[in-house]
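Person: Please comment on this record:
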Amino acid sequence: MKVDLNVYIPELTSRVLSAYGLETLRPRYDLAPLGLSADQTLPLGLILTELVTNACKYAFPDHPDPCLELRVERVSTSVQVAVSDNGPGFSPEPGTARTYGLRLIELQVKQLRGHFTITQASGTRFELTFPLSA
């Protein structure tokens, strides 16, 4: 059985936004029609929950026009996921770069046998690529 990401990702995102009182924020979605196994959906869901939670906690407070974008596409035999916000950016304090949340993300990415990058340009952008399982 496959989990439809076009349904799963908006539902997950909506629940996190609601938990932070941001029900009126309307994320931008660019989601390719794609289904994942439960074995891949679970770690992806934990990653997305952490990223959206971080945006709610650090990017959106006091922001006059918060923006959250989520993109998923299939490229050959891989899945590419991008999550970006227009907040002040991610700049951990010296010595705290490996926060609990980042360690959680790293573990889940490893479980997906993928790799990721985090970039700072008009907010924070997380990009993940992992192989699509059969």
